[in-house]
Amino acid sequence: MTDKSSKDTEKSSLLLQAKVWAIFAAIVTPGAFLIGSHYYEGYLSAFGLSPDELPMATSNVYVLSYSVVGYFLLAVGEVLAKWVNSLFDFPDVLYTLVLLAGFVLVVYLGLKGRRKIKVGAVAANGRFARTLRWLNPHANDGIKAVFIVFFASYGVVALSIGFAAIAVFWWIIPVASQAKGADNARERIDFFHKSGCVLEKKTKWNNCFVILDERGAIAHQGILVGVSDRGIAMYKKEGLVIVARKDSLQLMRKNSN
Fold first, then answer.
1. Alpha carbon distance, N-terminus to C-terminus of the chain
2. Closest to 231 measured CA to CA, from 215, 216, 211
């Protein structure tokens, strides 16, 4: 009987874990797609394009989402690191020590006062002791009802705030990812207008791509925005061009000026 009970318990535990993972996947999957697609939309919008004009494969959207989340984690890490470092910089370190000492003092006085009240309540037989006994929720159903209603109301409020925070968080990340994509695209555009097509020191490749026609001549040169089955989107100093895909055209990136 014991073995059967343990097996049933183990089976129920595995079933619960499977349900939790299923719920987690159901929430994360559309969220990840939303983040990646918004980033791509923001990136294209800086070049004057929309995802309908230059669609991206779903698998690439999820990969892009992973990178965007990495951007946010790095940004949060930098903010937290700066905040922690600021706590130990002079004179902020003095404020930190004073604040910690204040918390210690408040907790100490609270514990000490609680002991005094307890000793006084046990020793005294007057009105104060009777008042304390009356306020005890274990001995007074009215006070117990007040405590139950208070904590129930607190739980409802906390739950509402939690759902509101999740909802805001759910929409803030896609909107922020769209802004991040647009910012990255604008940085490329500003650098292109300032420096033109130059050799990148880190990659040893030119930052521009060229489209060669059937004769091998340069038809277009600029920043490669994206490639799809419909065409090639390239940003030039004159503006954005979308070249239809042809077998006679060649897309090339030079490794020298």
1. 80
2. 211
What pLDDT is recorded for position 225? 92
pLDDT tens-digit readout, 145-170:
656 656 666 666 667 666 666 666 66
The 10 Å CB-count burial string (b at 16+, else e) for 154-187 is eeeeeeeeeeeeeeeeeeebbebbbebbbebbee
Residues 6 or more apart whose CB falls under 8 angstroms from that of 133 comprise: 121, 139
Q: Enumerate residues 6+ apart whose C-beta is below 8 A from 196.
A: 208, 237
CB atoms within 10 A of CB 228: 15
Q: What is the pLDDT of residue 121?
A: 47
CA pseudo-torsion sign 12, 17, 20, 21: negative
Closest by CA position to 250, among listed 215, 199, 223 = 215
Residue with tokens 């001995």: 139
What share of residues in the chain are helix, strand, coil (percent, to 5)?
A: 65, 10, 20
Q: Is 243 helix (H, G, I), strand (E, B) or coil?
A: strand
Q: Each residue of 43-73: pLDDT tens digit?
A: 888 888 888 878 887 777 877 877 777 777 7
| Inter-residue contact 221 to 208 (CB < 8 Å) | yes
pTM summary value: 0.56
- Specify whether the CB–CB gap between 236 and 221 falls below 8 A: yes
How far, in Å, are 155, 189, 198, 205, 206 from residue 202 at the CA level? 55, 19, 12, 8, 10
The letter for the amino acid at 157 is V
